[in-house]
Amino acid sequence: MKEISLKILLFILSTASFWGVAAKSNVVLEHAETLSFDKKQKADCQVLKGNVRFRHEGALLFCDSAYFYTNDNSFDAFGHVKMEQGDTLFAYGNTLKYDGNKQLLSLRGNVRLINRNMTLETETLDYNRVSNTAYYFNGGKLYDETNTLISKRGYYMANAHLSEFKDSVVLTNPDFHIFSDTLKYNLHSKEANIEGPSNIYYKDEAHIYSEKGRYNTELKNSTLYNRSIVTQKDGKSIVADTIFYNQITGDCRIRSNAVMIDSVQKIILKGNVGNANTSFALLTDSATVINYADADSLFMHADTIYCAKDSAFNNVYAYHNVRIYRTDLQGKCDSVAYTGRDSLITMYFAPVLWHENSQISGSRIQMHIDSSSIDRIKIQENALVAMQEDTLHFNQLLGREVTGFLEKNKLYRIDVKGNAESRFFPRDKDSLFIGMNKTASDYMTIYLKDNKLDRVLIYPSPSGTLSPLANLVHEDMFFPQFVWHEDVRPKSKDDIYRRTTPPVREEKKTDKKRRK
Description:
1 helix; mainly beta
């Protein structure tokens, strides 16, 4: 081992270019307490000890000791390794391999990379000074004043303040946590880009699942794609092709194939365009509401559906071209309102309701819900109930107000109040029609059995006639208001999207020919 004066060596290195030795972008040794050569162990290496300092391409590198390979323009540094690049970028570690030609650093052991208010901690870090990009591949943590990111692998671009994390990614913030497979994060804009299966938890208030999207950790708003799901603590959830969500206000804007589910109220809302928060939801474009509280779900479609929470009760409003389908009940009208406080569904503007072979119409129809099932139907003003016996004969009830009672989704009783009139077609024991019974009174109660007329109670001062069928013209068999709307009746849950116009009954000249 031979030792020479460090001052003499530095003088020789500084004049190397004069003697024709290439010195372009060379790593410069600025200080060391001792310098030695060990030709047997490392013939091409200078052994440096004590407060070693290198300079290269605008960076200063410090360590306790180093092997300096001048021919390769590289060195290995040991103990209290530190790099300073300008006044904003610093790197620390236990050991360092530096390639001056490629400007590559390989830091190992207790590594820290600091860029302004960002710190990256890991055990293994490779840093490219040309692109100012740091890579770690054995677990790392990146944090600033508000956010902490942990992952198994990742890289950080210092110039662009961009980072990408892969494998078991966790982003922690005082207000939320993100668990992801792949996440990109911009420390300047505070925006996280979701690139794989990810879960975002806002304390106990909300949960987001997304596989693609972006989230601003400072503004706390997100843009989510590819059927992402937002779930609130009250049991409501939203899934759509695109969701714009603000965590501070709880507001959501949704686009394309949106589905909102209220698991507490057992309600599903669907549509292509909408807005929602914890207290209301508005949907348009194929807007649909589904009530699945009962075993037989109810489907309702309208141009616009609006849901609002009134204290502890939910209200639903549907506007224009409303169509309703349930296996045992169908309906059509212009507008519908459901008030949770009263458990009432009200149909407005030319409403028509069908129940098995019965058709109900009037100025307004109300349905009362008890324990998720409809137990009462009230028709107000111009109430007309028609029950089809066959293609030609229809039992009909007319009155100022009609109330139908249901049990287990079966109509078993009908009350008519005010100007009660009826046209019935009774049958004999062989089920043959015997004529038409026409009655009038103030009140009327009809009892049904298996959806067939069982008995009729007319009071207080009934009047009526029984006419043989042969004596009837066609117009005698129907009230003037009667129209059978079977062609606009929804036939399935998919048929609610069919747009129809209710038929208007044409006035006919009196048919003087008697039916044979």
